[in-house]
Each structure stands twice: as structure tokens, then as C-alpha cells.
Amino acid sequence: MRHRRKGRGLSRSRSHRKAVLRNLAIAVIEHRTITTTLAKAKEVRGLVDRLVQYSKKGDLAARRRALRVLPNKKAVGILFHEIAPVMQDREGGYTRIIKLGQRRGDAAELAILELVGFEGTLIKRQEKAKSEREKRKEREKKEREEAEAAAQAEAAAAE
Q1: Distant-in-sequence, close-in-space partners of 103: CB < 8 Å, separation ≥ 6
Q2: What is the pLDDT of residue 122?
Q3: What is the mean pLDDT of residues 127-150?
Q4: What tens digit of pLDDT does each residue of 49-87 get?
Q5: Residue 154 lies inside a defined structural domain of this protein
Q6: Of 8, 5, 40, which Cα lies nearest the Cα of 22?
Q7: Entry pTM
Q8: I want to staple 122 with a disulfide (CB 3.0 to 4.6 A). Which of 33, 48, 70, 135 is the partner?
Q9: Residue 100, helix vs strand vs coil
Q10: d(Cα 127, Cα 29) in Å, to the nearest integer?
Q11: In sequence order, what E strands does the chain have?
């Protein structure tokens, strides 16, 4: 029986589960949004909400509490200096879960976990990546054309 058993096991040992949740929380804080399975998103949501609550207090004790949960100074710095000011007037509900559907390989339910107030960061990142891909393709095409022109010039000079 499952009496008094909170949370999801995620088919992992306790230490592995703790590490996975810490890493997901760090990723959410650094990137403002992540794509993961629905179960992991639901599980890490409480951790991230608690960390944002600590960051809103902003004192040394809250910072140390956050460092105990997330031993990553960079992520805690982002949390206290960039995320906390945006969340200062919110009473709760700092994260949002958006269901995406099933993953092709194993049909696992996927979801986007994002910080409220930082909407569109995933879209901006995708647009930036797309524009960089297009620039790279144009640059490669230009280099290819230059190489072909040089090869033709060599062939003409050899004749």
C-alpha cells in the first residue's frame, strides 16, 4: 500500500532522483523554460516554486537555504538577481506546465515547464537558432561557389 508515500519515484533511487530534480531546477532557472516529461515537470515544479519563494525574501539565510537545495552559485545568483525582481508581486504559481503530447520513441507524455513572466524565451531561442542556421547555410553556399570558381579558374589556366 502507498500510505504516506508522497511524490513520484520516477523509476530511480532516492539519490538519483534528487540529482535529476536538482539538475532540472538548475536548467529551469538558467534557461527560464525546459522541455521534459510530464511526471518530471510536475515533480520539479514544487522545488522551483520553493526556490523562487526563498529568492523573494532575498536575505542571507534564504540564499543559504537555496544553496543547500541547489549547490550551484551561478543558478542561485540568477535566481536572486534576475528572477526574484520579476516575481516580487506574485503570491505563488511561479511556474507553468504546458502539455506537448507524446514523445515518438517511447510515447512518454512531454511538457514544457516555464517560469511565469518569462514567456517566449523558448520561441526567441528557436528563432535565433533558425537565423544562425540560415546564415551558416548562406556562408557555406558562398564558400562552395567560391571554391568552384577557383577550380574552374585553375582548369582554365592549366589548358
Answers
A1: 37, 109, 110
A2: 67
A3: 91
A4: 999 999 999 999 999 999 999 999 999 999 999 999 999
A5: yes
A6: 40
A7: 0.75
A8: 33
A9: strand
A10: 21
A11: 33-37, 95-102, 109-115
Residues belonging to the chain? 159
- Are residues 55 and 126 both part of a single domain? no
pLDDT value for 24: 97
* CA 88/CA 130 separation, integer angstroms: 34
pLDDT at 124 over 80: no
Cell of 89: 508581486
Among residues 93, 96, 52, which one has the least CA distance to residue 76?
A: 52
In a domain? residue 85: yes
Q: Domain count of the chain?
A: 2
Residue 130 has pLDDT above 70, yes or no: yes
The pLDDT of residue 48 is above 70: yes
What's the grid cell of residue 104? 515518438
Q: Look at residue 9 and tell me if it is in a domain.
A: no
Q: Is residue 32 part of a domain?
A: yes
Encode 73-84: b = buried (16+ Cβ within 10 Å), e = exposed: eebbebbbeebb
Pairing mode of beta strands 33-37, 95-102: unpaired
Q: Are residues 97 and 47 in the same domain?
A: yes
34 grid coordinates: 525546459
Q: Say if residues 86 and 118 touch (Cβ distance below 8 Å).
A: yes
Q: Are residues 28 and 104 in the same domain?
A: yes
